[in-house]
Amino acid sequence: MPSFTFPPGFRWGASTSSYQIEGALDVDGRGSCVWDRFTAQGRIQDGTSAATACDHYHRFPEDIALLKAAGFDSYRFSIAWPRVQPTGTGAVEPRGLDFYDRLVDGLLEAGITPMACLYHWDLPQPLEDAAGPQGGGWQGRDIIGPFADYARIVAARLADRVKEWMMLNEPNVVAIFGYGVGEHAPGHTLGEQGILRALHHQNLAQGAALRAIAAEHSGLTLGTVLNLQPSVPDSDKPEDVAAAARWDAVWNRVSLDGVLRGEIPALLAEKMDSFVLPGDREAIRYPIDLLGINYYSRMTMKHEEGHPFDVWWGEAQCRRWTGMAWPVQPEGLYDLLSELRTGYGNPAVFIAENGCAYDDVVAEDGQIHDAERVLYFREHLESVAQALAEGCNVTGYLCWSLLDNFEWAYGLAKRFGVVRVDYDTQKRTPKDSYHFLSAVAKSGRL
């Protein structure tokens, strides 16, 4: 598309998550989380761990400097629940809150707006172990109160300086891969009911946390972050069309329609009837100020029995694939933003994650010339520009991720960062993609 100028005030930045970059897992009283146990069970593909990761816990000033040098004005980070409450309830660890104090102050000194996410998957292990009547962790209602209390504790410490708060990150991924098929922590294979219970209880906890913060603080921007990916059928066969619709309900609508509309998708209502109680729909709906969107690709789905909801991945139609074997489909981001405008009242949204892993190579000049990632960002920003031109209420774009990091079950092998991290030396090297995004952020033009 022709050159595009982003509107005044459009925000640029990067996102990270605590578990993927902080390291220091046994420092300053931090408790254990479900990913610690999952790793200890030998379930990380490359055999690595997040014990050090990017050592951001000790090196955050250097990482803030990278954000500032890029011209980024916003940074979404997550707070590690087990740093703040080592057991998930009760006693607060002041050294954990002290760390986030230092991080926030450093961001503000650099002119960067902090966007805090309360939960990016590092659930305190004791909450997972404390099985209530419906199960532990996100399987039951016992987690709702503790999450709201945790939100209240963190906001009480930081809300004088942090004005933008996201509750959850990708509840669908937590539910499906953590509780449904066992590929993520805590590693359960509970099938359809495990997935739907985890989705619903995250919705309820999110609603409780939003209300807890709003009751005690004014002038904040409150929201959440959802991974939204259009679900399209593998073929025009009726069974594949129906499978894609079912997957859309699970992947997108439980979370999206829950917080925005207080609705349970009709396709799933019967399956969820046993644990959706009177008043739940009202409890999960909340008039959020800002919705974060994580987008990576469309999802091409087909009917295949033997999997949850009788759905499985089909063969995507695309020209290129990332190093994660994910399809590159920037047009799907435009479709998603357009649907939010026409079907959901055009809420204020920002791109909270968009990025790609490739097998980066350090060139002879010591740099990383990641042309595929540059192209990926350019094409997705073109989709954002097109959506903006048509009136979509997009307020900013944050890449995933600032740093190469611990990529969950893949370990350290997959690199999403616009800054390379040498895990042996912790040297940071900005890639060509970093310089590309920096140029766009500083000029406001694509």
From TrEMBL:
Leader sequence segment: none
BP term (GO), one: cellulose catabolic process
Enzyme Commission numbers on file: 3.2.1.21
Keyword annotations of the record: Carbohydrate metabolism, Cellulose degradation, Glycosidase, Hydrolase, Polysaccharide degradation
Gene Ontology MF terms: beta-glucosidase activity
Class of this enzyme: hydrolase
Gene Ontology CC terms: cytosol
Positions contributing to substrate binding: Q20, H120, N169, Y296, W400, E407, W408
Active site residues of this protein: E170 (proton donor), E353 (nucleophile)
NCBIfam families: BGL
Family: Belongs to the glycosyl hydrolase 1 family.
Protein name: Beta-glucosidase
Organism: Azospirillum griseum
Organism lineage string: Bacteria, Pseudomonadati, Pseudomonadota, Alphaproteobacteria, Rhodospirillales
